[in-house]
Write a structure and sequence with these properties.
Elements: H1 17-27, E1 34-37, E2 45-46, E3 60-61, E4 65-68, E5 82-83, E6 89-91, E7 103-105, E8 110-113, E9 116-119, E10 129-130, H2 151-159, E11 164-168, E12 171-176, H3 181-196, E13 200-204, H4 209-214, E14 220-224, H5 235-242, E15 244-248, E16 252-253, E17 259-263, E18 266-271, H6 275-294, E19 305-309, E20 313-314, E21 320-328, E22 331-334, H7 342-347, E23 350-354, E24 360-361, E25 366-369
Parallel strand pairs: 12-13, 12-14, 14-18, 16-21, 19-22
Antiparallel strand pairs: 1-11, 2-11, 3-10, 4-6, 4-7, 5-9, 8-9, 15-17, 17-18, 19-25, 20-24, 21-22, 21-23
Length: 373
């Protein structure tokens, strides 16, 4: 709690969102890579290309059938079978291809009778065959550094014989400045989103802000609450004493009282103690910080859906604005602006960001709607 005689924490300027994001991009550095088992790497961002040895080492049959040289079947058809000069060999899926063959024909594509074999269809070279290196080629990474690993990727890497991968896994500490159910709810949603985006999160609800800023066990700190000018608000002042306060006051609504700073190399993001404002700043600035920590090439963490506005959105030039949207068929209906009530958050299907240089959007305009965490 701030002393009664201490000066109130005030905001002298709302820093444009573009400047805030530029500061994140220039000053937040990627975390040190670490090696993880493939089974534990879901959602993590690769720090090095995932490269597997050539697989398979020799051509394999992809299906059960007859191993043939495709040229021997040229011109074959149901009414014009072609006598095969060499007896075909029967193969099963996964078996190496016999020497001199380059395709696998279905069983009903070859007629075998009394020691004679006839092709009933023309087979193309490579049909039914997995060539050498067809599953993985060491010259072509399965996934590249900066890409986030999906569950499907993990299965493919494991099948290719990769047991471990090198990733960046940012560790974030989330500090609730006081015991409050709204701040606790905001901390919970931010923590879960961090985990979903490939980091790890630890919630510290002890309220000991100074100690959290001195703790070096995390790569970044997210503080929730105490960013305004109330008598008990002192988060920005505390950060300024512990390190460097780069921004206090962002031209983003909701979330104008948010702040950004550093203690040594560690970034510290201060979110307002209101759920809508904390969520807004986290989605627009916090996720960008997390991307930089992970050195992610993926600038959009969630797929956006293009919908048509059901009615106009009016915004203040100079302020970027997060607006909740409810989907109605192929249209998006704005539910609130400036202050986002809990009912609007709960009833909405996603959100849009109105840029600072825009007065808003007319009814019928296309907008990019992103899902909430």
């Amino acid at each position: 709690m701030a002393a009664a005689s201490a000066p109130l924490q005030t905001i002298t300027r709302l820093t444009p969102l573009a400047e805030v994001l530029a500061a994140v991009d220039s000053d937040v550095q990627p975390v040190t890579p670490r090696t993880l088992d493939v089974t534990a790497a879901a959602g993590r961002v690769l720090a090095a290309d995932a490269v597997a040895p050539a697989r398979p080492s020799a051509a394999l049959a992809l299906q059960d059938g007859w191993a043939l040289a495709a040229d021997d079947t040229l011109g074959a058809g149901g009414y014009a079978p072609v006598l095969l000069m060499h007896s075909p060999q029967r193969v099963e899926a996964g078996q190496p291809m016999p020497a001199g063959t380059d395709s696998v024909a279905p069983f009903n594509a070859v007629k075998v009778m009394q020691g004679r074999a006839e092709a009933l269809v023309t087979v193309n070279p490579g049909d039914g065959v997995l060539p050498a290196g067809g599953d993985s080629d060491p010259g072509i990474p399965l996934r590249q550094a900066g890409e986030r690993l999906r569950i499907t990727d993990l299965a493919a890497l494991a099948c290719a014989g990769l047991a471990r991968v090198t990733v960046r896994e940012p560790r974030l500490s989330i500090v609730a400045v006081r015991a409050d159910r709204i701040i606790a709810a905001a901390a919970s949603v931010v923590a879960r989103d961090i985990e979903r985006q490939g980091g790890t999160a630890r919630i510290d609800d002890s309220g000991t802000l100074d100690r959290a800023l001195r703790n070096n066990n995390s790569n970044a700190v997210v503080i929730i609450g105490g960013t305004g000018s109330g008598r008990n608000d002192a988060s920005a002042q505390t950060l300024a004493r512990a390190g460097r306060l780069a921004v206090h006051g962002m031209a983003l609504t909701p979330g104008e009282t948010a702040a950004l700073g550093f203690v040594g190399p560690r970034p510290v993001l201060l979110l307002p103690g209101r759920l809508d404002a904390a969520l807004s700043v986290w989605l627009v600035v916090g996720r960008r910080m997390l991307e930089r920590l992970a050195a992610s090439k993926m600038k959009e963490n969630e797929p956006a859906e293009t919908l048509t506005l059901a009615r106009k959105v009016v915004s203040t030039v100079g302020l970027a604005e997060v607006v909740p949207m409810r989907r109605k068929d192929d249209t998006a209906e704005p539910l609130a602006m400036k202050y986002l009530p809990l009912s609007a958050l709960a009833r909405s299907d996603g959100w849009i960001l109105v840029p600072a240089d825009s007065e808003g959007y007319a009814a019928g305009a296309p907008v990019q709607v992103r899902p909430w965490p």
